[in-house]
Amino acid sequence: MEPITIAGQTIEAGKEKQILAVISKLPTRTEIEIPIIVRRSKKPGPTLLLMGGMHGDEINGVEIVRRIIANDYNKPTIGTVICIPIFNVYGFLNFSRQVPDGKDVNRSFPGTRSGSLASQLAYHFRNEILPVIDLGLDFHTGGARINNYPQIRGLMDNPKNLELAKAFGARFIINSPLREKSLRREAGKIDKSILVYEAGESLRLRKHAIDEGVNGALRVMKYLGMRDEAPEISTESVMIAKSNWVRARAAGLYYSFVRPGQQVEIGQKLGLIAGPYGEFERSVKSRVKGHIIAVNNNPVVNRGDALMHIGTE
Known about the structure:
Layout: E1 4-6, E2 9-11, E3 16-25, E4 31-40, E5 47-51, H1 59-70, E6 80-84, H2 89-93, H3 117-129, E7 135-142, E8 146-154, H4 159-168, E9 172-175, H5 183-189, E10 193-201, H6 207-223, E11 238-240, E12 242-247, E13 252-256, E14 263-264, E15 269-274, E16 281-285, E17 290-296, E18 300-301, E19 306-312
Parallel strand pairs: 5-6, 5-7, 7-10, 8-9, 9-11
Antiparallel strand pairs: 1-2, 3-4, 4-6, 8-10, 8-17, 12-19, 13-15, 13-18, 14-17, 15-16, 17-19
Helix pairs in contact: 1-6, 4-6
């Protein structure tokens, strides 16, 4: 098996190494380093990326990758596992989705060496990590107090992506089109598969979301022949063909009557929006039969705010 090189450091077959990739410096001249943990088998096989913290406030993904490393799950029987628990170090330090210049790393690919901070992060990933991997799992959560039920997203028209998604075993499999300047689109240009796991909400650790993420990663590793054991899939996956957001038709206090993962029927009462002075109450009802794949946990809403995401099979 050929050696691989990341950030100027070479890792031979059968070896492991923690690489500190220097990306940039803070105004104080403190270097910003991204720890990259690489473990390789002596036997040839695929190279799998496990990454969290693309958005710095999405802590569940960080914990998923941390737990995989802490429990020694990233030691493969064949191939290579590359773990990056925190990719967006800037955002992580500032409890923020973005980097300090306000840009989203996942809308900055392929990036440039001398561009914005987000562009520099994307550039280093595109040139140092993406060329050496075969496939990856990118762990995310909902943003802005949106709580996502465990779901795996990707371009499911690709049979390879669909097989990996089924192996992961999340409750919902969502066919998600590629977005401009995203990691998934950039990876697709060079025939690399990246699946996105979404579960929980930003700046909040949720045990169920983390457990399902760890278990899914282990199942993918088993599917690839990289480990011998993995937890059994506990619930049958549902393929979501399309989804729509239910939006607030009035401003006020929002009370939800349903939970993420729940199945709902046409006409079912999903929640209630009430005026803070007792002047009105307005029911929120479902217009479709489907599954609640995400809910907004913010109790104060404006007209037009997203309340919940309903997916249909």
